[in-house]
Amino acid sequence: QTKTGIALLYDEVSENAYDIRLKLTKEVLTIQKQDVVCVSGSDHSANHRTVTLRRQPVGGLGLSIKGGAEHKVPVVISKIFKDQAAEQTGMLFIGDAIIQVNGINVESATHEEVVHLLRNAGDEVTITVQYLREAPSFLKLPLGSPGPSSDHSSGTSSPLFDSGLHLNGNSTNTAPSSPSSPIANEPKYEKRWLDTLSVPLSMARISRYKTGTDKLRSNAFEVLALDGVSTGILQFYTAQESADWLRAMSTNISDLTLQNMKMANKCCSPSDQVIHMGWVNERLEGADSSQLYKFKFLALKGSSFYIFSTPPVSTLDWVRAEKIYNLCEVLFKIHKLWLADDCWLQANLYLGIHQDFDLEDQRPYCFSVMVGHGKSHYFNVELGSELAVWEKSFQRAIFLEVQRTGSKTYMCSWQGDTLCFTIDFALGFTCFDSKTKNVLWRFKFSQLKGSSDDGKTRVKLLFQNLDTKQIETKELEFQDLTAVLHCIHSFIAAKVASVDPVFIDSQCIARKYMYSN
């Protein structure tokens, strides 16, 4: 998507926000700030401009000012009136900070001091100005060309007094003075939007939260490039604008990620393809039990689920993952959805969404990945559409891996005997002696009627004998029981999906409820 619009850049240190323009293309987000540039004439710097104004009998200096040292901002030109002295110079612009008046420095002057100086400066007033590129938004300066009719600010009034200097000051000359006008050889200036920062969107990430907290920024978010360069906090006037920009940027980032996946898959065998990858936030439990989140990059590739601190950009990067898990031995669970009516939809309502965590945090769109030895990773994404994609991708990746693998065998024991337990996509469950290889029992997936475990190492599997219709209990002990139970779940789900194509869609909780609402 391509998109252009006005936003604010919020400075968390000064707590001020500045007007900016955003330009979104398929691959780059560009931040622009307004500045005054020299477009013709002598090659003078546009940083400081010295202009002589001739006070007119009607209209005075033809400008208004705002700000002052008492507000911790310079005095700036807030209005320029059409066909009056200030406009006729062609060298003054709304947003210009007044540096000097008739040689007197006013950078630290109050509003009233500058007003007094300008009103009593005589018929000719020489001012030195510099365009204030980061004018705080509370000044409510119009954006665009001079004149009250071009006010593109938010429309609310500024808390600062707007002093009009379009009336006569203390003039000693009652005769009409010649109007201020640009001299032929003088440089000409224009106010333009200039690029100040370009953020590549390939492998970029977005955050709506204050760093390391669960505090959601109001109508604002931050975009961070792969190399760590940040846009800063982008703030929008309405929730709708913020949502529109968030979706547009997320769409472009996702499209670029898809391109990167296709490039990576050209170098990979058919059995080792990337199914999905992208940024998430992982919740970490601190020593003081405070909840912290860190960016992680997840990937589903071939037989494995990868967790990275930074994205893999080359073939060799795949071996430096923080964690790698076999896809057959993980279990994906949705924990939170946020519906259109802004209510929480959590576990145990009617969707079968699992809740095994203490979910006191305020982040929506959460899921966990259960791994071996009873451990879990808890993640959050920014959009409901991202949650739906991860859910579908995990299902697809796991089902593909089950079909590729065909079977998994685990060492186990019971009553002192060392046994092997095999889960086979075609045959079901088989238990045999590890030494003699003699088969002790075999059941189809459809014969498994229930199970229970002690949460540690021991499990009871309840099978129905096809001949007697009686339930037979088989007890086994595994070193990593969680991995085995996840594997059983993966194989059974893949088996059902292979005979019922609708099964996958029926299991997509996030997609079903995010889109229907």
Which key terms come to mind for this protein?
single chain, 517 residues, alpha+beta, PH-domain like, Pdz3 Domain, eight-stranded antiparallel sheet, seven-stranded antiparallel sheet, 7 helices, 19% helix, 38% strand, structural molecule activity, Syntrophin
Task: Describe the structure concisely for a colleague.
A hairpin with a 5-residue loop joins strand 25 and strand 26.
List the helices and strands and how they pair.
Elements lengths: L2 E9 L4 E9 L3 E13 L8 E6 L8 E6 L4 E8 L4 H5 L6 E6 L2 E2 L5 H9 L4 E8 L31 E2 L23 E13 L4 E3 L12 E5 L5 E6 L3 H27 L8 E12 L5 E11 L2 E5 L14 E4 L4 E8 L5 E2 L20 E5 L5 E5 L3 H22 L1 E8 L2 E8 L3 E6 L5 E5 L4 E6 L4 E7 L6 E7 L3 H19 L2 H6 L1 H8 L1
Antiparallel strand pairs: 1-2, 1-14, 2-3, 3-11, 4-9, 5-6, 5-10, 7-8, 7-9, 12-13, 13-14, 15-16, 15-22, 16-17, 17-18, 19-20, 19-21, 21-22, 23-24, 24-25, 25-26, 27-28, 28-29
Helix pairs in contact: 4-5, 4-7
What is the C-alpha radius of gyration, as a whole number of Å? 34 Å
Q: Identify the CATH architecture of one domain.
A: Roll
Q: List low-pLDDT spans.
A: 145-160, 167-181, 338-360, 513-517
Strand order of the largest sheet: 18-17-16-15-22-21-19-20
Find the count of extended strands (DSSP E, 2+ residues). Answer: 29
Kindly provide the name of the CATH class of one domain.
Mainly Beta
- End-to-end separation in angstroms reads 24 Å
Oligomer: single chain
- How much is the average pLDDT? 83
Coarse shape: rod-shaped
Number of helices: 7
* SS class: alpha+beta
Family: Belongs to the syntrophin family.
Main location: cytoplasm
Keywords: Actin-binding, Cytoplasm, Cytoskeleton
GO cellular component, one term: cytoskeleton
